[in-house]
Specification:
heterodimer, A: 429 residues, alpha/beta, Rossmann fold, Coagulation Factor XIII, Chain A, domain 1, 2 domains, six-stranded mixed beta sheet, 11 helices, 20 strands, disordered N terminus, B: 295 residues, mainly alpha
C-alpha cells in the first residue's frame, strides 16, 4: 500500500477511494442476521416446568439482510441509517459480538472496537485497572496495556481524576476514557459507533484529528453515524441501511442525499388545518412547491429555482390583502420570509368567491434539510390582522453535497491575498 | 452493492462471531487472571477490614458449628479414633466447601452481570465463569493457610500424604468449574436458577460430610440401605472432604477408598465430577454464541 507522503486533506465529495492494493481489511459477503423475539419470554425454569408443552412463539426480526461490501485499506467507511436501521447490529457483527446467520465476514488486521458508551468498564474500579483490562480485551498483552496507560489517560484528559472510581465519572468522561483506550491499542481497523454524539467540542475535534492521523497512517476506520455532515467530512465510501437492507453503497454525498430523502421525503403529508388563525375572510385552499419544470417533487437539489404557490379563496370582498410565506427549517426558524406587501402593497380588489394563486419564486440556496412553509393572509396594514394562517400542509427536502452548518448556502467568493499592504491601503482610503 | 466475487484466498481471518473459547490461549489466560484479580482487589479494598472478612467468614461459620454441634450436641466427640482433631477436620471441610459455594454462587449471575462487557467486546465467553472460579481459588489458598496454622497448633503432624492435596483440590476444582459453567449459562435463560441453586447448595452443605462424619452415615445406612450409601458417595464433595480428612489431618480417619469399601468405588464420584464438567462445558459452549443477544 502506497502511503500518501503528506497529510491528505479532509475528504470532500468525490474524493477517490484509496486504491485497492493489498488484501482488504474487511470483506463482508451477503450477511444476514435475524433476531428471535419471543412473544412471551419464559424467564424461569418454573414456567418451563409448568407448561412443558407450550411452545414459545417467536417473532423473527430481520436486523440485517443480504449485506455485502468491502472496505479498502486506509479507507474511512461510513455506515449510515436511521435509528433501528441495523447499523449498530452490523458493526457488532463486524466486531464478532454477534454471530451472523449466513454470509461471511473476513477481517485482516487487529480490530479495535468502540461500541456505544463506556466499553464495559467496572464501575467500582479506578481508571487504571479498567484501562489495563480493556487493553487486554482488545488484544494487548498485560505489559503493553500497562505501558500505554499514561498515553490513554493523557489523551482522555483525565489525569486529575485517575484515582476516582468510575462510578463517579460523568458520562462524557466515560466516553473519553473508552475512546482513548480504543485508539491506543494500535489496531489496524477501528470500529466506531456514534462517537460524535458525545464529548464536548474540544474533545470531538481531538477525535477528528486522531481519525485524520490514523487515515494518514493507512489504517482503516469503519464508523456508524446518522450525522450526514460527519459522513461527508470524513468518509471515502459509505453504506446506507434502511430496515436492515442495504439501500445505497457509494459516495458519501449520494448516501447523504438518499438518507435525507428517506428520512423526510416520505413523511405523510400531514393535513394541517388544525389551529388555523385569522378571521376566515379568506382561506388558503392548497399550497405546494414547484421546481423549474413545474413538477412537484418531495426533494429539491440546491441551486435550482423553486416556486412556492398557494391557492387562495376569498369568502368576502377584500381590498389589498397581503399574502406572506415563512420558510421554517427543522428548528422552526424562519430561514426566508417573503410577502406581497412589500412590492404589491396595493394588491388589488378581490371579490367574494374568487380563487387566486400567490407565487413566491426564489433560487434555492437553502442548506440541506427539511423545510415546512407557513402561509399567512392578512388585511392591508400592519400584516398582523390575519384572515388565515396555513401551516404544516406539506414539507420539502433540500438536498446538497454537504451540510456545512449554515442556514443557507449563498454563493461565496473565496480569495486569498498576499498583498496585505495594498489591501489595507484601500481599506484606509 | 459490490458485485465482484471476492477471491477468498488471503482475505485474513474469518469473523465467526462470539465463542466460548479461543485459539489465543495466552490472551485467554490474561483475561481470566485480570478479571479475577480485579474482583479480588474489589473485595480486598472494598471494606474497612478488607480481606479479614474473607478469612473470617469460614472461621465464624466454623465457630458456630463447633459450638453447637461439637460442644453442645457432642457430634464427633464420641472419642472414636477417627474423630481425632475433629476441629481441624471440620474447619478444613468448611474452607473447601466455601470455595465450592463461592465459585458456584458467584458464577450464577456472572455472565448476566457482565452484560456491558458481553455486549460490547468480543472475547472468549468462557473467561467469565473461569475467572469466578479463579477468584474462589485465590480465597481458598488464603484460607488453607489459616487451616494449616490451626492444624499445626492443634498438634497435627506434617505427613507425606499432604502431597495428595493437589489431587484432592483438582477434583474439587473440576467439579466446581463444571457447576459454574452450567449455572452461568442456564441463568441467562432461566432466572430462577439463583434461588434454586441457593437451596441446592444448602442441601449439599448438610449432606456432605462437614459436620456428620462419613463413618456415622455409613453406620446408619450400610447393612440395610447400602444402595442409599452408594448414592450418598456419588457426591464428589463426599470424596473430596473425606480424602482431605484422611490425607491432610489424620490417618485415623479412613480414606475415601476404604470408606466406600474398594478403590473402584471411587469411579462413581470421579465419573460424576467429569460428567458435570462435560455437561457444563457443553452447555456453555453451545449457548455462548447467542449470549449477547439473549441477555
Amino acid at each position: 500500500m502506497r502511503r500518501p507522503a503528506v497529510a491528505r486533506p479532509i475528504p470532500f465529495p468525490g474524493m477517490p477511494r484509496p486504491s485497492s492494493s493489498g488484501p482488504p481489511p474487511i470483506v463482508v459477503e451477503s450477511i444476514s442476521k435475524t433476531f428471535r423475539v419471543p412473544e412471551e419470554r419464559t424467564h424461569t425454569l418454573k414456567e418451563r416446568a409448568l407448561h412443558p408443552l407450550r411452545r414459545t412463539r417467536h417473532e423473527t426480526f430481520k436486523a440485517l439482510q443480504e449485506i455485502s461490501f468491502d472496505v479498502r485499506k486506509g479507507e474511512f467507511f461510513g455506515i449510515a441509517g436511521r435509528n433501528g436501521s441495523g447499523k449498530s447490529t452490523l458493526l457488532k457483527c463486524l466486531a464478532g459480538i454477534y454471530g451472523v446467520d449466513c454470509g461471511r465476514i473476513w477481517c485482516n488486521g487487529r480490530l479495535s472496537t468502540f461500541i456505544e458508551l463506556g466499553v464495559g468498564f467496572n464501575q467500582d474500579l479506578a481508571a487504571r485497572d479498567n484501562v489495563v483490562l480493556n487493553g487486554i480485551m482488545m488484544g494487548l498483552s498485560p505489559r503493553e496495556a500497562r505501558a500505554r496507560y499514561d498515553a490513554v489517560i493523557d489523551f482522555a484528559e483525565l489525569r486529575e481524576f485517575e484515582e476516582l472510581k468510575l462510578k463517579n465519572y460523568s458520562s462524557g468522561m466515560h466516553v473519553r476514557l473508552a475512546f482513548s483506550v480504543a485508539i491506543q491499542v494500535d489496531a489496524e481497523i477501528l470500529l466506531v459507533d456514534e462517537v460524535l454524539a458525545v464529548g464536548d467540542a474540544a474533545f470531538q475535534q481531538k477525535c477528528f484529528d486522531v481519525f485524520n492521523r490514523m487515515r494518514d497512517e493507512g489504517r482503516t476506520i469503519v464508523f456508524v453515524t446518522h450525522d450526514m455532515g460527519a459522513l461527508n467530512r470524513f468518509c471515502h465510501h459509505a453504506l446506507l441501511l434502511e430496515r436492515g437492507a442495504p439501500v445505497h453503497l457509494g459516495e458519501p454525498h449520494e448516501v447523504a442525499d438518499r438518507y435525507l430523502e428517506i428520512n423526510f421525503g416520505r413523511d405523510p403529508e400531514a393535513a394541517g388545518a388544525e389551529g388555523r388563525g385569522g378571521d376566515g375572510e379568506a382561506r388558503v385552499l392548497d399550497a405546494w412547491i414547484e421546481d423549474e419544470h413545474g413538477e412537484r417533487p418531495g426533494s429539491l437539489p440546491q441551486g435550482q429555482r423553486i416556486t412556492l404557490r398557494a391557492r387562495v379563496s376569498f369568502m368576502v370582498d377584500v381590498e389589498d390583502p397581503a399574502a406572506s410565506v415563512y420558510v421554517l427549517n427543522d428548528e422552526h426558524v424562519a430561514v426566508l420570509v417573503a410577502t406581497t406587501a412589500r412590492e404589491h402593497e396595493r394588491s388589488g380588489h378581490f371579490t367574494a368567491g374568487e380563487e387566486v394563486v400567490f407565487s413566491f419564486a426564489f433560487d434555492n440556496v437553502l442548506a440541506p434539510g427539511r423545510y415546512s412553509p407557513l402561509f399567512t393572509l392578512a388585511h392591508r396594514g400592519t400584516g398582523l390582522d390575519l384572515m388565515d394562517r396555513f401551516e404544516g400542509s406539506f414539507s420539502f427536502v433540500v438536498t446538497g453535497p454537504e451540510a456545512m452548518g449554515g442556514l443557507v448556502d449563498l454563493p461565496v467568493e473565496v480569495a486569498v491575498s498576499r498583498d496585505a499592504a495594498a489591501l489595507s491601503e484601500r481599506v484606509g482610503a | 452493492m459490490s458485485t465482484e466475487a471476492p477471491p477468498y484466498a488471503g482475505l485474513g481471518r474469518p469473523i465467526r462471531g462470539p465463542r466460548a473459547l479461543t485459539d489465543d490461549w495466552v490472551r485467554f489466560w490474561h483475561l481470566t487472571y485480570n478479571i479475577a484479580r480485579n474482583e479480588f482487589k474489589l473485595k480486598f479494598f472494598g471494606s474497612v477490614l478488607g480481606y479479614v472478612w474473607q478469612v473470617m467468614r469460614p472461621l465464624l461459620l466454623f465457630g458456630v458449628l463447633y459450638v453447637f454441634f461439637v460442644v453442645i450436641s457432642h457430634v464427633g466427640h464420641g472419642g472414636k479414633p477417627s474423630e481425632k482433631y475433629y476441629g481441624v477436620q471440620l474447619l478444613g471441610s468448611i474452607v473447601l466447601f466455601t470455595f465450592f459455594g463461592e465459585a458456584t454462587a458467584g458464577a450464577v449471575r456472572s455472565v448476566v452481570d457482565r452484560e456491558n462487557l458481553v455486549r460490547k467486546i468480543q472475547f472468549p465467553r468462557m473467561v467469565i465463569p473461569l475467572a469466578i472460579v479463579l477468584l474462589g481459588f485465590f480465597n481458598l489458598m488464603m484460607n488453607l493457610i489459616v487451616v494449616l496454622i490451626f492444624a499445626l497448633i492443634s498438634g497435627v503432624h506434617p505427613m507425606l500424604s499432604w502431597l495428595e492435596l493437589p489431587l484432592i483440590l483438582a477434583m474439587l476444582i473440576v467439579f466446581s468449574t463444571g457447576m459454574a459453567m452450567l449455572l452461568a449459562s442456564l441463568f441467562v435463560s432461566f432466572r430462577d436458577i439463583q434461588p434454586i441453586w441457593e437451596v441446592f447448595s444448602q442441601i449439599l452443605f448438610y449432606s456432605s460430610p462437614l459436620i456428620i462424619p462419613v463413618l456415622t452415615v455409613r453406620e446408619k445406612l450400610v447393612p440395610h440401605h447400602t444402595f442409599l450409601f452408594h448414592l450418598y458417595t456419588l457426591n464428589p464433595l463426599v470424596a473430596v472432604f473425606q480424602q482431605f480428612r484422611h490425607a491432610m489431618v489424620t490417618h485415623a480417619t479412613p480414606s475415601i477408598g476404604a470408606t466406600i469399601g474398594s478403590w473402584t468405588g471411587l469411579l462413581g464420584p470421579t465419573g460424576v465430577t467429569l460428567a458435570v464438567f462435560a455437561l457444563g462445558f457443553w452447555v456453555f459452549n453451545r449457548t455462548a454464541p447467542q449470549v449477547a443477544e439473549n441477555l
